[in-house]
Amino acid sequence: MLYASTSIVLGLVLLVWSADRFVVGASSVAKCFNLPPLLIGMVIVGFGTSTPELFVSCIAAFNGDDEMAIGNALGSNIVNISLILGITALIAPITVASSIIRRELPVLLVISILLGILIWDMRLDRLDAFILLAGFFGLLAWTIKMANQQTEDPLNSEFKQELSTASSSPKIAVFWTLTGLITLIASSQLLVWGGTNMAEEFGVSKLVIGLTIVAIGTSLPELVTSVTAALKGEHDVAIGNVIGSNMFNLLAVVGLSGVVNPMVNLNQTIFWRDWLSMLFLTVVLLFMAIGIKGVRRIGRVEGAVLVSCYGLYTFLLFT
Hints:
Blueprint: H1 2-32, H2 37-48, H3 51-62, H4 66-91, E1 94-95, H5 99-118, H6 126-149, H7 154-163, H8 170-202, H9 206-218, H10 220-231, H11 235-260, H12 268-290, E2 297-298, H13 300-318
Helix pairs in contact: 1-2, 1-8, 2-6, 2-7, 2-11, 3-4, 3-8, 3-11, 4-9, 4-10, 4-11, 4-12, 4-13, 5-6, 5-11, 5-12, 6-11, 7-11, 8-9, 10-11, 12-13
């Protein structure tokens, strides 16, 4: 019990630190190549904060822990929308000005529905996984195209401001990228081992551990990024980080985990409880961000609603 809990705590601390170093390093490398700030922000920052989910789920899948692998991805999306955006809005209300964000949200909804169709039969074989990965590469191409075209979007100026402090030294940038990547792999293994042993110790399913402790832990980089951005007044970065992370989780994290180890006998609650909860929250976020009567704002009331949704979901998990 002591070893498992220590492994989880240490794994989470190292995971958050290494994810931050990896994103900072990768952003600095991209900056050294004079890539557009919007492209760096949407691809590296938006997707990079989900590297903990990627490593944790792939290691879990490799170890045969299918439910922890997919539970981590779905749970992270639920945490991102309800808990992270909810807490961020309670601290600093979010105004959605970017047209890019409003275009990405319907895409996230379509991706969420696609995953539901693929796991309807309670399995995710390699063909399903390759469909998700093909979708990810298509999303990546579309994101790059948008980033190169939408230079006047408010999101662009916010990313310029965010990246202004990035290191311009290639050696330092490469050092932090590699250090972050190596530590990510080690801390992910530590977290999966601790989560597996914790589940066995308390008689809780690995799915629930993946949906709660592991999902919250791997989503901490998104929390730090979104809260920090909102406090700086970079509202579109705050919500864009969550949307980019959620798309990456569904396409790349679940897809790559399915390639590593096909999931052939999934628990029905993954679809009826977890996927439906994620889909519901995605629809709620879509309406909040697109706006009702022209108001595109996630205020403290909406933030409280989102946090309450997470409380209700957690109650469902343990009852």
